[in-house]
Amino acid sequence: MEYRSLGRSGVKVSELCLGCMMFGGKTAAAESYDIIDRAIEAGINFLDTANVYSRGESERVTGEALKRNGKRASIVLATKVHGTMADGDPNAQGNTRRHIIEQCDASLRRLQTDWIDLYQIHRPQPDVPIDETLRALDDLVRAGKVRYIGTSTFAAWQAVESLWVAERLGLNRFVCEQPPYNIVDRRIERELLPMARTFGYGIIPWSPLAGGLLTGKYRRGKEAPEGARFANAPAFQARRMTDAVYDVVDGLEPIAKEKGASLSQLALAWVLRQPGVTSPIVGPRTMEQLEDNLKAVDIPITDDDKAKIDELVPPGTNVSPYYEASFGPHPYRV
Question: I need a labelling partner for 271 at 20 to 30 A (CA). Which of 4, 230, 256, 306 fits?
Answer without folding.
Answer: 230
